[in-house]
Amino acid sequence: MTAPGSPADTPGAERRRRPRGEVRDGLVAAGLELARTGGPDAVVLREATRMVGVVPNAAYRHFADRDELLAEVCLAAMGQLADRMATGVARVRGKHGDPAAARHRLRAIGVAYLAFAREEPGLFATAFSVPQQHGYDTAPGSNGTDRTPLGQLRAALDELVDAGVLDQRRRTGIEYPVWSAVHGMAVLVGQGPLRDLPDAERHRVEEASLAFLNQGLG
Amino acid sequence: MTAPGSPADTPGAERRRRPRGEVRDGLVAAGLELARTGGPDAVVLREATRMVGVVPNAAYRHFADRDELLAEVCLAAMGQLADRMATGVARVRGKHGDPAAARHRLRAIGVAYLAFAREEPGLFATAFSVPQQHGYDTAPGSNGTDRTPLGQLRAALDELVDAGVLDQRRRTGIEYPVWSAVHGMAVLVGQGPLRDLPDAERHRVEEASLAFLNQGLG
DNA sequence: GACAGCTGGTGGACGCTGTCCACTAAGTTA
DNA sequence: TAACTTAGTGGACAGCGTCCACCAGCTGTC
């Protein structure tokens, strides 16, 4: 992001005082890049400051410690996962309530989740490695639509009920088994014991998981 | 494991040359203890050597680097998970082939898995964090019974087929969706976004996952 | 039994990390 | 303009993984 010789990106500006929030945002962006290529452990504070072109201690003006920076990076990574899911769902046509469309949309969620875990293993691992102190927000709820991964899954399951595919009485709390099944597959295949499976085999296994879900939901 | 003042556990032996394999085994044991309380990141080489009462470099006589030690610790942790599952299954009575017993044994596997993840979060996380270079062995297969977690799951599913609960044609590859569902729940609830769920809620969610499985298998 | 060779320990050093403290310059407000 | 806050710098520290040189004790052979 910057040459080691010159203190900042722009060679003209010699030192000190970048625009408001620039350093902070830069650190998060740098951390995200590090996480992308090396997972959460690769988010090293000094390296991030180097990329931004600032001295290590400058980070402490914006974050209490490394974990707080990491937490921010995790949040951003989770956001990218959510985006991926949203675009996947949006690609499925067919109006709300149509049984086939509802099934496809749920499937799209799972496919996007698994694809993200496969193509961005560093970010995926980071998204789920929020340090202890800076816990997850357990969803904002909010008035509008909840764009978190869990929120999107809930919406898809609700539609499955609306479409008459999933029995209303089974709906309560079923997001957790469903989420678990997809998440577990992503973890086992991405970083866990199944990570060395050849591509074809991995694809088969992933499909089996989605099929199991599709079948188990009605 | 030893007082910092004296170099070894036994105060008489002043220094040098412990019995064959003792230091190596001690390092793994120490690493396991560290992993138990703090997860894989807590397995720090220097601390392990301190616990054994040996100088940091001594570790390099037994392991190429820290990752190799960690890999050994991971293996041990996985072994403890397998033990837990085996004893859980063994507690279920009823002879092989009985439908109810087969169902109970599968359930016992899931319950043991989730219990281990909950009660030993450090070891559980460690078991699944084998460093890249020292990959999982993808099961020995072997002639006798396979005591790995996956092997035990397979046995339980086979019994489910024998008992006529699970259709033979659905058997192939179904261990992966099943494993994923349980593993995903363990991860989400233990270290993931659901880790702050109150006990009662977490229990309900875990049960939902097991019920989903039980229902989905026929 | 002396001697060579291997094995497994020691001591010291290096570069990297996260973090703390003191300091200072730029921007903001009175 | 003076006082105050904000956001950067510089230097230091301990702890980490790892490398190199060294050396003590065990082992096997002539």
Which chains share the greatest interface?
A-B, 38 and 38 residues
Rg of chain A is: 21 Å
SSE string of chain A, helices as H and strands as E: HHHHHHHHH
- Average pLDDT value of chain A? 91
The total strand number of chain A stands at 0
- Oligomerization category of the chains in this entry: homodimer
Structural class of chain A: mainly alpha
The geometry of chain A reads as elongated
Can you give me a brief rundown of this structure?
The structure is a homodimer of 218-residue chains. By secondary structure, chain A is mainly α.
Explain what you see.
2 copies of one chain form a homodimer. By secondary structure, the first copy, chain A, is mainly α. Helix content of chain A is 60%, strand content 0%. The first copy, chain A, is elongated, with a radius of gyration of 21 Å. Chain A binds chain B through residues 41, 128-130, 135-136, 138, 150, 173-174, 176-188, 191-196, 204-205, 208-209, 211-213, 215-216, and chain B through 41, 128-130, 135-136, 138, 150, 173-174, 176-188, 191-196, 204-205, 208-209, 211-213, 215-216. The first copy, chain A, binds a DNA duplex (30 and 30 nucleotides) through residues 15-18, 23, 44-47, 54-58, 60-62, 65-66.
From the structure above, extract its key features.
9 helices, mainly alpha, disordered N terminus, DNA-binding, homodimer, 218 residues
